[in-house]
Each structure stands twice: as structure tokens, then as C-alpha cells.
Design goal:
This protein is mostly beta strands and 283 residues long. Helices cover 7% and strands 49% of the residues. InterPro entries: DUF3108.
């Protein structure tokens, strides 16, 4: 198990908020992509996990358990436009290796369906011991566009194979995907004024990602009132987020380390993602 603050493939990276070099603020791609928006936000939520009762052969320091369910509303300036969810559904086996099965998805509401229907699904199999990606599946239906990715991460050989495109690329040790990166980050130690760096390997070149911890404060959402860290992601030009947008995320400063709020000011209005309800699992 890696020590807190050490990001996969990069080693420890901490710095003051002002030292951003040529990094740009995180953002989103299209006016309505709830899963893309929520997951890209959520996967950068670095947080310190609580030490739970350890399962056999599992990582000792994780703030999530099988049965955890997070439900979100996705809201635009004009009102609600859809919903999203993230589940820890089971312990699976992939090529003989025990893994957490993580599933997430989102859909537009009936009004948005009339002109831009969205049905997105994400799956990640995360190594139970070291919390890196073993497999990643993404199926997106957004408007008239349908996109599918099925990626196999051969961590022992240091390669990632795309079952849809048929290509193979080299990856850094213990590489992450778009979803596993969030759950790995939840096990890291967050401190106000510091930054954390890691990289996911979904695209060929990977996507370096830096997260700065801005402050801590109370926030109220439909699921309740929580004391949270406020974090902000930065990415290099041409990375995961393509258009400007000031993105901030609130993640609970407690043993559960769950995201409760995401906001972004964009050219077309303000996007707000709110935690509506949750179940911690483990019962």
C-alpha cells in the first residue's frame, strides 16, 4: 500500500497553491455531460481514508466498502438536467486477481431527453490490494453520439490494451483509469494548501492531473450538512478538460471521504452537482 501523498507513477508531489506553472483550471467539455462532468470531477477528489476492518488480502486503508452508493443531481442555471450515481458493487476476480467492482452512470431527465438524451455507464475493476486499475469500460450515448471503450490494464507487463480499437500502449506502474483514480485518491492524506499529482491512462498519452486543496468549510446539500475540503483540479493544456471552466469540489473531512458538491462557472451557465443521498455499505 502506498503511503499517503504518493501518487501512482509520480512519487510524492506537494506544493503551494500558487506554484502551478503551465497548468490550467479543470473544466468540462459540453453543455450537458453529467457523467463526464461528475466523474471527471469526482476522480480528482484526493482524500484521507479511514482505517477500516481489513478484508482478507485487501488494502488496509480504504474509506469505501462494498455496498457504498452515492446519488447525485446534476443542475444547470435553469434547473435540474439529470442525475448520476457511483456504486461499489462487489468483490470480483479478474484474471485471478481480487478486485473492487465499481460502477457509475448518469442520465438526462425527461426534458433534456427531448433534445439531448444522455445515458452513460462506467465500470472499473480496481485491484483489491494496491488500488490500481485492472479493467475499465465506458459506454456513452449522448445525443446522437455513441462511444464505447474497453481497456485492459496489464500492470505486470506495463501495457494497456484497447479491446475496441485494438491498440496497445505502455503505461506507468500502477496506472489508473478515469474511475479508479477517484477511489485511489480517496485514500490519500489531504492538507489545506498542498497539491497532489497523478495520471490516468485512458487515452494514449495519459492525462497528468494536479489537485490543489484550497480550504475547508461547512457546506449544506440535500443529503445533509458536512464539513469538507474544497479542492480544485488543474490539467495541462490539451488534457482531460477541453474548455475553460472554474471547477471546485467539496469532499467530506471525515472517515467516509465522499464528494458532496461540484461547481463550475462556464460560458453557458453554472453547473452544480449535489449529493442527494448515500449509503456507506459494509453492513
Amino acid at each position: 500500500m502506498k503511503s499517503p501523498g504518493v501518487c501512482a507513477g509520480f512519487g510524492p508531489h506537494r506544493g503551494k497553491v500558487g506554484a502551478l506553472d503551465n497548468w490550467t483550471r479543470g473544466n468540462v467539455k459540453l453543455p450537458f455531460k453529467p457523467v463526464k462532468y461528475l466523474l471527471c470531477a469526482a476522480l480528482v477528489l484526493a482524500a484521507a481514508g479511514a482505517l477500516r476492518a481489513q478484508q482478507p488480502d485487501s488494502a488496509a486503508w480504504v474509506p469505501f466498502q462494498v455496498g457504498e452508493k452515492l446519488y447525485f443531481s446534476v443542475n444547470w442555471s435553469v434547473g435540474n438536467i439529470g442525475n448520476a450515481h457511483m456504486y461499489v458493487t462487489a468483490i470480483d476476480s479478474f484474471r485471478g486477481q481480487p478486485c473492487y467492482r465499481i460502477e457509475a452512470g448518469a442520465s438526462s431527465n425527461k426534458t433534456i431527453d427531448l433534445f439531448y438524451p444522455v445515458r452513460d455507464y462506467f465500470l472499473s475493476l480496481i485491484d483489491l490490494r494496491k488500488l490500481f486499475s485492472r479493467k475499465f469500460v465506458k459506454r456513452q450515448k449522448e445525443g446522437r453520439t455513441v462511444n464505447e471503450r474497453q481497456l485492459i490494464y496489464d500492470q505486470e507487463r506495463g501495457i494497456r490494451f484497447d479491446l475496441v480499437k485494438g491498440d496497445t500502449v505502455k503505461i506507468v506502474p500502477e496506472a489508473q483509469d478515469e474511475l479508479s483514480i477517484f477511489y485511489y485518491f480517496r485514500t490519500l492524506d489531504l492538507r489545506v494548501g498542498e497539491g497532489y499529482l497523478l495520471e490516468n491512462f485512458v487515452d494514449r498519452a495519459g492525462n497528468p492531473l494536479k489537485v490543489m486543496v484550497l480550504r475547508s468549510e461547512w457546506v449544506e446539500v440535500p443529503a445533509g450538512r458536512f464539513f469538507c475540503f474544497v479542492v480544485e483540479p488543474y490539467i495541462k493544456q490539451g488534457g482531460l478538460f477541453q474548455h475553460k471552466g472554474n471547477l471546485q469540489i467539496w469532499i467530506t473531512d471525515d472517515q467516509n471521504r465522499i464528494p458532496v458538491k461540484v461547481t463550475s462557472e462556464l460560458d453557458f451557465g453554472r453547473i452544480v452537482v449535489l449529493l442527494e443521498s448515500f449509503s456507506l455499505g459494509g453492513a
